[in-house]
Write a structure and sequence with these properties.
The complex is a heterodimer of chains A (81) and B (190). Chain A has 81 residues and is mainly α. Helix content of chain A is 74%, strand content 0%. The chains are: A mainly alpha (81), B mainly alpha (190).
Chain lengths: 81, 190
């Protein structure tokens, strides 16, 4: 049932390369073949997609007045030269 | 001020990786902006503005860190667990104790979990906590890629990473976030 050589344990280590598009050619085909035949890895991939989506809803760190002050100080320095 | 508001917190975090204190990091960022203002007239747009700004920042931060006598082996920023497995190896063991690298217990199906739990405040707190506990470079890569939506190329340039290192850092970071979510969602999920 499994893709010929690839084990589940190996597949989970290739998943970022798969998402990044750096998994190509024969390695990509083996990855996809395994995925088609394996419920566990299909669920793992879905979990990883949820993980990425959930992380994407976090708010970015907002600039503080103090941090903006650092820039304004640089700007003043620059103008003073 | 949009670009500045967006970049300033990231610049301070990145600078802080290379130098010893927040105060020094602020000086580094200030110097970097000075360099940006000075260089702007000759900025030729061969790279993105963001990439160019971060190149200036990283150069200054690294030089400053060296002057402080801070020796920073890659592992101290990236973490020493880059080779660690994404999933606990015991998940692939059969009850008999042998391992053929197949799931012994399948990962949970999360598709039935309501969206408001999946993306609820508590879940987000779990994610935030994990990211805060990551080695600095792993934390920064996942923040820039998955929170801020930068491309891998932009992250590589900003943090001065190879393609492989960027991917491995992201892989570790995401694996840990997924692991934490799995623990959280399976506890009292049903």
């Amino acid at each position: 049932m499994m893709g010929r050589d690839l084990t589940c344990k190996e597949l989970v280590e290739l998943i970022t390369g798969y998402f990044e598009g750096t998994l190509r050619g024969r390695r990509l085909r083996r990855f996809e073949a395994h995925l088609t035949a394996c419920d566990g890895c299909t669920r793992y991939l879905a979990q990883m997609e949820v993980t990425i989506r959930a992380t994407g809803t976090l708010a970015e760190e907002r600039v503080t007045d103090e941090q903006r002050g650092v820039l304004l100080a640089a700007f003043r320095d620059w103008k003073a030269r | 001020m949009d670009l500045v508001d967006q970049l300033q917190p990231v610049m301070l975090r990145v600078a802080r990786m290379y130098v010893s204190t927040t105060a020094v990091a602020e000086e580094v960022v200030q110097d970097a902006w000075l360099g940006v203002f000075r260089g702007l007239p000759s900025f030729e747009g061969r790279s993105s503005l963001r990439t160019w700004i971060f190149r200036i920042l990283t150069n200054i931060a690294k030089t400053r860190g060296q002057r402080e006598g801070r020796s920073l082996p890659f592992a101290s920023l990236a973490g020493d667990d880059l080779d660690a497995p994404a999933v606990d190896p015991s998940r692939f063991d059969s009850p008999a104790g042998s391992s053929r690298g197949q799931w012994s217990t399948l990962p949970d199906d999360w598709s039935g979990i309501p969206e408001d739990r999946l993306l609820g405040q508590e879940t987000l707190d779990v994610i935030r906590e994990v990211i805060a506990s990551l080695p600095p470079m792993q934390a920064e890569v996942i923040r820039l890629r998955d929170v801020s939506g930068w491309t891998s190329e932009e992250v590589r340039n900003a943090l001065d990473l190879t393609e492989t290192n960027q991917r491995v850092l992201l892989h570790r970071a995401r694996a840990k976030v997924r692991g934490a979510l799995e623990r959280y969602l399976s506890s009292g999920a049903t």
